[in-house]
Design goal:
This protein has 394 residues and is of the alpha+beta class. 46% of the residues lie in helices and 10% in strands.
C-alpha cells in the first residue's frame, strides 16, 4: 500500500514500502529513502536521500527518473556515478577547491621557481596549514574568517611562517582570479586584519664573529670532506647551495663560475656568478681536483654533500655559527676594517645593486676589484695575516 505524506513521520522503525521498489527505512525516529531494483539479474539499492531532506513526492520523482534509465538498459547506480563525476569536472573547471587552485597556480608558476619549486619549498606552508584546513572547500565559498582560522594556529607562535602563508594564500587567490575563477584575493587581506598585528622580533641566523673566523677555519679541519667544504665556504662567501654543489668543471684557473641554477633568485632573473678564488682557496682545492668524479666535495650517498652534513660538522666541533653566517662575518669584517667599498662588498655577496635601469647600464661584475678583497679575506681567515685595509679595492 502506497505511503501517505501526512503519516510517514509517525511510522515506526522498520522498512515501509511505497511501491515500484521505493521504500522508507526508519530507525531511531529518523528515515532514509531507498530504491531497490534488479539489473542483469542482480539486486541493487540506491539511496535517494534522508527523509528530513527529501519529501515523499521528491522520492517518487527520483525513483521514476531512475526507473526510466533502467528501462533503457542502463544501470542507474553507474549512471548516477558518471553524472556525479561530470558535475565534479564542471565544478573543477569553473570553481576549483582551494587544494586544486593551489595545484593550478603552482603548475603555472613552476617554470619560474628554483628547482621547479622544490628547492625553495614554495608550497610547504600551503600544504601544511591551508590545505588541511580548507583545501576541500570550493574557492568561491572561502571567507576571510576561513583563512584566518587556518593561519591562526601559527600566526603568533611561528609568525614568519604565518606571514609567508598569508603571502602565498593571497598569491593563489590573485592568480586564481586572473585565471577566471570566482575567488577574491581581498579575503586574504581581510584575514590579516582579523588575525591582528604581532610584535615579532626577527631572530637572525647565528653568525661567527669575524674575529673568530681564523680559529673556526682551523677547527673545521681538513681530515673530512665536510670540513674541507666548510673551509671553502668560508673562503668564497657564497651561499651554501653554491659551494656544496661545486663542480670541478666550473673552475677555470682562479675563477669559479657558479651556474645560475645554484644562485638565489627567481629563475630567469639570475645569471652565472663568477667568484675570484684566493690563493688560500686554490691551495685548498688543489688536491681535491685529482679525486675521481666531477663533484669537488662528493658525499657518501649523494653527488654532493648535504647541508645537514655540513651543519653536523659545525655541531661536532661545537660551533654555534651557521653556514649562512659566514657571509655576515665577511660583511662585518668589511665594515670594521674598511676593507673595501660598499659596491664591491655587496657584489662579493652576490647582492643586487641599484634599480633595473641602473643595472641595465652598469653590467660589470667587478671581478678584478673583488680579487684583492678575496685575497685579503683568504689570508685573514687562514691566519696568514691580520685584517687589513685595502683602499685600492674601494
Amino acid at each position: 500500500m502506497p505511503l501517505k505524506a501526512m503519516t510517514i513521520k509517525t511510522l515506526p522503525d522498520g522498512t515501509h514500502e511505497d511501491g515500484n521498489g521505493l521504500r522508507l527505512v526508519r530507525k531511531g525516529g529518523r528515515g532514509k529513502w531507498v530504491w531497490r531494483y534488479s539489473f542483469l539479474g542482480k539486486r541493487h539499492e540506491m539511496g535517494l536521500g534522508a527523509q528530513d531532506n527529501v519529501s515523499l513526492a521528491e522520492a517518487r520523482k527520483a525513483r521514476d527518473r531512475w526507473r526510466s534509465v533502467l528501462a533503457e538498459g542502463r544501470n542507474p547506480v553507474a549512471e548516477r556515478r558518471a553524472e556525479a563525476e561530470e558535475t565534479k569536472r564542471k565544478r573543477e573547471r569553473n570553481d576549483p577547491t582551494i587544494a586544486e587552485l593551489v595545484d593550478l597556480v603552482f603548475e603555472a608558476r613552476k617554470e619560474t621557481l628554483r628547482g621547479d619549486g622544490k628547492r625553495g619549498q614554495w608550497r610547504n606552508a600551503l600544504d601544511l596549514y591551508l590545505i588541511p584546513a580548507i583545501g576541500k572547500r570550493a574557492g568561491s565559498t572561502i571567507t576571510a574568517q576561513d583563512i584566518a582560522d587556518a593561519v591562526r594556529p601559527i600566526w603568533r607562535t611561528k609568525h614568519p611562517t604565518g606571514v609567508k602563508l598569508m603571502i602565498r594564500t593571497r598569491l593563489v587567490l590573485k592568480d586564481g582570479r586572473a585565471m577566471g575563477f570566482p575567488v577574491d584575493p581581498a579575503m586574504a587581506d581581510r584575514a590579516k586584519v582579523i588575525l591582528g598585528a604581532v610584535d615579532h622580533q626577527p631572530k637572525h641566523i647565528e653568525a661567527t664573529p669575524w674575529q673568530e673566523m681564523p680559529a673556526l677555519f682551523e677547527r673545521a679541519g681538513c681530515d673530512t670532506m665536510a670540513g674541507l667544504c666548510i673551509r671553502f665556504g668560508m673562503l668564497t662567501i657564497v651561499r651554501s647551495a653554491a659551494f656544496r654543489g661545486a663542480l670541478k668543471s666550473e673552475i677555470d684557473g682562479d675563477v669559479w663560475t657558479v651556474p645560475a641554477d645554484r644562485i638565489k633568485g627567481t629563475r630567469g632573473r639570475v645569471k652565472d656568478f663568477r667568484v675570484p678564488l684566493s690563493s688560500a682557496a686554490l691551495e685548498l682545492i688543489e688536491p681535491l681536483m685529482d679525486i675521481p668524479g666531477n663533484a669537488l666535495f662528493p658525499g657518501q650517498r649523494a653527488r654532493t654533500l648535504t647541508d645537514m652534513a655540513l651543519s653536523g660538522r659545525l655541531n661536532k666541533i661545537g660551533e654555534a655559527g651557521r653556514l649562512h653566517g659566514f657571509r655576515t662575518a665577511f660583511r662585518t669584517w668589511v665594515q670594521d676594517t674598511d676593507a673595501c667599498g660598499y659596491e664591491v662588498a655587496e657584489t662579493v655577496l652576490g647582492h643586487t645593486i641599484g634599480g633595473a635601469v641602473e643595472r641595465a647600464y652598469a653590467r660589470s661584475d667587478l671581478l678584478d676589484r673583488r680579487r684583492p678583497v678575496m685575497e685579503a679575506w683568504g689570508r685573514f681567515v687562514t691566519g696568514q695575516a691580520a685584517a687589513a685595509v685595502l683602499p685600492f679595492a674601494k
